[in-house]
Amino acid sequence: xxxxxxxxxxxxxxxxxxxxxxxxxxxxxxxxxxxxxxxxxxxxxxxxxxxxxxxxxxxxxxxxxxxxxxxxxxxxxxxxxxxxxxxxxxxxxxxxxxxxxxxxxxxxxxxxxxxxxxxxxxxxxxxxxxxxxxxxxxxxxxxxxxxxxxxxxxxxxxxxxxxxxxxxxxxxxxxxxxxxxxxxxxxxxxxxxxxxxxxxxxxxxxxxxxxxxxxxxxxxxxxxxxxxxxxxxxxxxxxxxxxxxxxxxxxxxxxxxxxxxxxxxxxxxxxxxxxxxxxxxxxxxxxxxxxxxxxxxxxxxxxxxxxxxxxxxxxxxxxxxxxxxxxxxxxxxxxxxxxxxxxxxxxxxxxxxxxxxxxxxxxxxxxxxxxxxxxxxxxxxxxxxxxxxxxxxxxxxxxxxxxxxxxxxxxxxxxxxxxxxxxxx
Length: 425
Ligand SMILES: Cc1cc2nc3c(=O)[nH]c(=O)nc-3n(C[C@H](O)[C@H](O)[C@H](O)COP(=O)(O)O)c2cc1C
Description:
The chain has 425 residues and is α/β, with parallel strands linked by helices.
């Protein structure tokens, strides 16, 4: 079993060589800095396509961007120079990252609402690659509540906001709202596109619920949907890991770029874990594994006329405890503990599980509050780790919480030596 060693060194600048960046320029005075941004991104080895709003063309001529990028600049939804209008959507599909710089208050509002009434705003609705915005505006426009609300909406959707700095604004004041420097925006693109601190690590994740057969058509199951497991897999992938996801039954589609294997019973999950765990640097066990299974499931459908069946149960193997007991090389082990009861009970149970199953981190969560635990896209988690640190993470999407969990694991393994059997309590 390999030891988990996060790679915290910044990704080298040339790790985005060959990537395609789509730069959307909206109508702010800072658009002159976007000319330098094109250069910086090209210095890092990217090719850059530029599309401009009508207002942006009043600040910088499209020809300037065309000369700098060496590529045609898009200014109209309806095609220019005989291009097929549909090509413009193609620009969004071809890009590895989309950057809006400068992002005006108007453009941010349109993004938050999903409005698509010109070329750049249409392109931004047609992409699913990392999306970065570099707002630039007067300080009052910046702190205007609707503007801050739009930014919050965008952040919650995973848009990366390259925060503006404080400095001399075009309106003559020194205040917050000045667009981040081109070098900082380029660094943010590198951080988004280059493999993150889980590069070189194999992360094994389980998610979803088990089904223990009673007969050939009935089973003992639970409400786990697999959403937490999928969110963990996507977050680990985005941090640079090679990810294996063991996923229970359900309608959710497999996440992209992840090696997915399906299971039904606790026994089949146990077999898959046995196969994949030895090569994993980190294991996150979010699957809801049945504690009991039917001793001898009927080989045919049980008939109602035969009366109420006498179903004998036995304990299923405890996969998490088995992993905790077996590992001896600093492999990182993350468990989940779903409870009903008060927050205090969740905290106690999560800490007890951490010690009992020899985990590095345990994520306690509640099944008895709306919008938490099973099924939904959001959750609230009590994250406790082997250093004794425990905290409730603010309610958030499962994807955001997953990222937080991995960041905590990375910090834990950077701060304190990985435990082995010898130094484990
Ligand atoms: C001289 C001038 C400078 C401007 N600078 C900014 C700015 O820095 N940030 C901003 O959000 N809007 C700025 N605006 C207002 C935008 O250009 C305006 O809201 C426009 O509708 C934005 O269109 P767009 O988002 O489609 O590019 C400026 C307007 C003018 C006339």
